UniProtKB/TrEMBL annotation:
<dbReference type="GO" id="GO:0008761">
    <property type="term" value="F:UDP-N-acetylglucosamine 2-epimerase activity"/>
</dbReference>
<dbReference type="InterPro" id="IPR003331">
    <property type="entry name" value="UDP_GlcNAc_Epimerase_2_dom"/>
</dbReference>
<dbReference type="InterPro" id="IPR029767">
    <property type="entry name" value="WecB-like"/>
</dbReference>
<comment type="similarity">
    <text>Belongs to the UDP-N-acetylglucosamine 2-epimerase family.</text>
</comment>
<protein>
    <submittedName>
        <fullName>UDP-N-acetylglucosamine 2-epimerase (Non-hydrolyzing)</fullName>
        <ecNumber>5.1.3.14</ecNumber>
    </submittedName>
</protein>
<keyword id="KW-0413">Isomerase</keyword>
<feature type="domain" description="UDP-N-acetylglucosamine 2-epimerase">
    <location>
        <begin position="28"/>
        <end position="369"/>
    </location>
</feature>
<dbReference type="Pfam" id="PF02350">
    <property type="entry name" value="Epimerase_2"/>
</dbReference>
Length: 371
């Protein structure tokens, strides 16, 4: 079987790693693969470091699309993906999550009648103003194989008419395959936790103490392209006592510089880090503040309370179980009120079921594709 993986952003580099390890370890005689990197994330700290650290094979092709508006970026990606897929003619094209790279790979493969495999299918935030929501919905409806992390994700697909053995006219195979496989990131995070031996070295890079700091990330357009909302987040940072380590996405750094924003004294603004360092910083934090979907999940895996700096989440299970609070929510008058609610839960014994599976999601995915 010839597979093409289309990746382009930090979360996808993390998700592809356990699958490639599984292929190399157990299925190298049955599967050949190539990697197409769109170049959506091109900053060294957001791209190269992950390939090196997670031992991901170097991309066979890098489109180097760089930054730009959604339309400009998508047009470059789509043209590049279509040209490369036409050239190598894989049996299946595999995409991950909800980025522009995911949609570009999906559209290109679908146009060329190549079956699409969507890993992390079925997620819904029910907010169509988010580019990610549009990307994931379109990808799901064009995919032939949909691997879902949770029961809720499967239910979302059922409601939209995407389910096992349902034939859709014009699709690239005779039936749509929907499989609940658990979350692929569990495989990766458990490998990292097993091998971590640099905890003290990482923590000493910053003037922080274990379990006494808040780890924060901000990168979504709804926060970085809205100065009023961005200042609301910084105002929250200014109102709390804990030291905050803000790992600033290039887009976040740009808005800070562009508007000459004064950073509160308790906030350390630093560059993004590699995956192992990120897991160490998450594991040793007191709380996590983020607008990232992947980090919300990692917070849950690591049993860390999380304040999500968004209006909603596609990981609703974490909210239902009490581990995650949505900051921009009608339930709270201010972000500070949401934070106070988070603190109240610190000493509560919250239920923590394995809603994202245990391990071996990557093996389940490969076995399903082979069979």
């Amino acid at each position: 079987m010839e597979l093409l993986f289309v990746v382009g952003a930090r979360p996808q580099f993390i998700k592809i790693a356990p699958i490639l390890r599984t292929i190399k370890k157990n299925y190298s005689e049955k599967i050949d693969f190539k990697i197409l990197h769109t170049g959506q994330h091109y900053d060294k700290n957001m791209s190269d470091v992950f390939f090196d650290e997670l031992k991901i094979s170097k991309p066979d092709k890098n489109l180097k699309v760089g930054s730009g508006s959604h339309t400009v970026q998508m047009s470059k990606m789509l043209e590049g993906c279509e040209n490369y897929i036409s050239k190598i003619k894989p049996d299946k094209v595999i995409v991950f999550g909800d980025t522009n790279s995911t949609l570009a790979g999906t559209l290109a493969a679908s146009n060329l009648k190549i079956p699409v495999v969507h890993i992390e299918a079925g997620l819904r935030s029910f907010n169509m103003s988010m580019p990610e929501e549009k990307n994931r919905i379109l990808t799901d409806h064009l995919s032939s194989y949909l691997f879902c992390p949770t029961d809720k994700a499967v239910d979302n697909l059922k409601r939209e008419g995407i389910y096992n053995k349902k034939k859709l006219k014009g699709m690239d195979n005779e039936q749509i395959i929907v499989i609940k496989c658990g979350d692929i990131m569990i495989d990766m995070i458990r490998l990292i936790l097993k091998d971590i031996n640099n905890t003290d070295i990482i923590i000493k890079n910053y003037p922080i103490d274990k379990n006494k700091y808040i780890l924060a990330t901000i990168h979504r357009e709804s926060n970085t392209d809205n100065i009023f909302r961005f200042k609301k987040i910084l105002n929250l940072f200014n109102q709390i006592e804990e030291k905050i380590l803000l790992l600033a996405h290039p887009r976040t750094k740009k808005i800070i510089n562009e508007y000459n924003i004064k950073i509160p004294n308790n906030v350390l603004v630093k560059k993004p880090v590699g995956y192992e360092a990120m897991v160490i910083l998450e594991k040793n934090s007191k709380y996590i503040f983020t607008d990232s979907g992947g980090i919300q999940k990692e917070a849950y895996f690591l049993k860390k309370l999380c304040l999500t700096l968004r209006d909603e989440t596609e990981w609703q299970e974490t909210v239902d179980l009490g581990w995650n609070i949505i900051g921009f929510n009608d339930k709270y008058n201010t972000l500070l009120d949401a934070y106070k609610e988070l603190k109240k839960r610190e000493n509560k014994k919250l239920n923590h079921p394995e809603i994202y599976g245990k391990i071996n999601s990557s093996k389940k995915i490969i076995e399903a594709l082979l069979n």
